[in-house]
Amino acid sequence: MSDNTVAVLDSVSRFLDRQHGLYIDGQWRASAAEGRLAVYNPANGQQIATTADANEHDVAQAVQSAHKAFSEGVWAQRLPVERERILLRFADLVEQHAEELAQLETLEQGKSINIARAFEVGSTLNWMRYTAGLATKITGQTLDVSIPMPPGAKYQVYTRKEPIGVVAGIVPWNFPLMIGMWKVMPALAAGCSIVIKPSETTPLTLLRIAELASEAGVPPGVFNVVTGRGTVCGKALTEHPLIAKVSFTGSTPVGRLLMRQSADTIKKVSLELGGNAPFIVFDDADIDAAVEGALIAKYRNAGQTCVCVNRFYVQRGVYPQFAEKFVARVAALQVGNGFEAGVQIGPLINRKARDKVLELLDDALSKGAQVLTGATPHALGGNFFTPTVLGNVQPGSLLLEEEIFGPVAPLVIFDDEAEAIRQANDTIYGLAAYFYTRDAARIWRVSERLEYGMVGINTGLISNEVAPFGGVKQS
Ligand code: NAD
User: Fold this and answer.
1) One of 272, 308, 403, 417 is an active-site residue; which one?
2) pTM here?
3) What is the pLDDT of residue 1?
């Protein structure tokens, strides 16, 4: 083991042993609530840490500290170039701790260490640097206008963008660091203060970086982290009158609830919710490329990403070829603890997630689907699940309608383009869609007709810091 590896492991273990508090006003504070929340390693079910279980009183303290910092202008009134410089320094500090953060991600979320390094920490750094640069690119407009009296008089209207105030960021468990920073960085670049709440399942990386924000020069009160249950701590954030905006990423049912909770105090709400992504393979597609794209778009993070493929539609002429090649690759995927070399598929996040996948699978099989590979809990036991492909999946099967959030790929045959588009759009969701074709006219036609916020064409990877990330309909 190199000296560096020893230092990282030592640092991770010291961090896990801490009695984690809440990061408020630039310092650690104990929660007013006595209870603690346990954090588990999904690969072996062992408890790895505990965090505070913040209550309404704790949330009020964090929000007041953020509001005080905002009203006193300690951040919002700084020159944009200074905010940019501090945020870039924040990114540099996160990069210095990249390996430690990747290890924490694999420990608390289960994703393979390679995915944690590349997607969680690597992408986070790209996002941080891109959004830091936005601090100096906030513009208004000047417009020439006429008014009714006196006739012919011309005025200029001048618009400027101002920070909205205190933002609450509420984060899911699947990409906690990256999605957390999707909320923190734009808020800070704009001059807002933020109170961020990670998922109770995966709170560790956002807690780890709290001090780095202060070290980079973000003033006390501007960046706060509270940990706790959604129904207590998250709810209190959405109801607090001093929160001006809520930025939420999570499931559609919780998104609906959160809009209601935010209604009494008329907050602005940004929601990134669940998906039900279709992946269409047309008969003119490059089948080998489609198989590669399908693997990354379906099985990344064991099928637990919001833009993961939920349903495959394959044109009849290429179905046998696609199914054969895809099944061979899926059957060879390596399942195991994300820290082991070569592992591509880690465990599902918990027992409930595993049971939900089994339930969806049983429903599809009872309606006539055929197992092409997998379809069983993995021999490793616990939360591990065997990568699965099902053929002949019938309309009305629940896994074509609900988010699977697991390593199961249902294949459906279609005959013509109109039918594929109709089936792809037949859902309440509209986050991401993918299709493979070599026909240029079809590329334009189909991409416009898919009712999705993001469409991947001849690729299985679509998220990038320069492109907007979001959905339509109930996503
Ligand atoms: P979730 O909706 O259960 O929880 C998300 C967050 O909301 C957690 O921090 C939770 O504590 C909090 N919460 C729960 N109840 C709350 C309440 N009443 N008030 C305020 N906050 C509350 O989602 P999850 O299981 O953590 O994450 C998986 C879901 O997130 C999937 O549906 C996935 O598609 C979605 N997701 C969407 C995107 C996107 O960008 N569209 C990205 C990642 C994940």
Assistant:
1) 272
2) 0.97
3) 73
